[in-house]
Amino acid sequence: MMTLHSIDAATQRVRQFSETFETIRNEINKMIVGQQDVVDGVLTALMVGGHVLIEGVPGLGKTMLVSTLSQVVNLQFNRIQFTPDMMPADIVGSSVLMDDGSGKHTLTFQEGPIVSNLVLADEINRATPKTQSALLEVMQEKQLTAGHRTIKMPDPFCVMATQNPVDQEGTYPLPEAQLDRFLFKLIVGYPSESDYHTIIDRTTSNAKIEIQPKTSAETLRDLRQTVRDIPVPSAAKTYAIRLVMASQPGSEYATDMVNEFVSLGASPRGIQSLMLAAKVKALLANRFAVSCDDVESVVLPVLRHRIACNFKAQASGISADAIIKDILVRLPRPDTRA
Q: Which residues form the ATPase AAA-3 domain (predicted)?
């Protein structure tokens, strides 16, 4: 249940959330043209403490978006450029021999770039599966184990990864265990004609764009608590559960399309991600409770990377997005009068 003490207190916290979200979004829009769904998705992940995977062809501003966000939220930021020859130690850190100044040498552990508030894993699917696996523990448990030491990540902690489409040369598909750790998978499309005009005006003139910090780590922690305090009515909760179950072949809610074309459906992390993202949608609409519309509005970015299509789907050109849209059409909403 919601722990807000009064309607006035609730209204104030909801207003603070939506105003802070809007302020950050407007500051990012100084640098990023268009792509509002992607911007909102990245901000939603940050507000709930989730990780996000951003996919698109090179040159669409994926890296710039995350870099700009780090400036706006005023968090410690590290960028990791993934390459085929990268090793796990390049991410988590390693022990190095250091001179202590007296002529003696000691073995000292040097933390890797993953130890930061906001981490940009750039072109994550350029690295081999062995290197990609170095992120599994830290993304789920917000800590890393190196030898006999355990290092806690700073709070807040968020991994924002970019990747090129997997059919491009020199890429490695991310394993299901890692994909499942991302709250969202966001698809970056090409700009519209009007966006191209704005891009030209901003990037080919002498105008300088200055990004200002608009929030802090402490504020983000408070906003995350506000998100978790939002209640979820039974109808919205049931709808979210059935959506996740409908993606699992052989379940009582699975559609014919799921049973035919899906080899692996969404895990319980899918329902957790649906609930948290839907709570953000409710807050942005100045509501105190989650609706079925909120759940439906986030189902694509939450589930598209959690549904593994089989060979028949790939041969038929059927994507996870098409399967999810079919589920939304065929799965009835729970009766709110019950």
A: 51-184
The torsion defined by the Cα of 306, 301, 16 and 7, in degrees rounded to 10, comes to -70
Give dist(CA 169, CA 20) in Å, integer.
40
Give the closest residue to 188 by CA, choosing from 54, 44, 68, 42.
54
Are both 24 and 123 inside the same structural domain? yes
Q: pLDDT tens for residues 315-327?
A: 999 999 999 999 9
pTM, rounded to two decimals: 0.88
Q: How far apart are the first and last CA of the chain?
A: 20
Cis peptide before 113 (omega within 30 of 0): no
- Give the CA-trace dihedral at 146, 147, 151, 157, to 10 degrees: 20
- The answer to whether position 216 is within a domain reads no
**Residues contacting residue 162 through CB under 8 Å, at least 6 positions apart:** 53, 54, 55, 56, 62, 63, 66, 120, 121, 122, 123, 124
Parent domain of 53: 9-202
pLDDT tens, 91-112? Answer: 888 777 777 777 777 777 788 8
46-70 residue pLDDT tens: 999 999 999 988 888 888 888 899 8
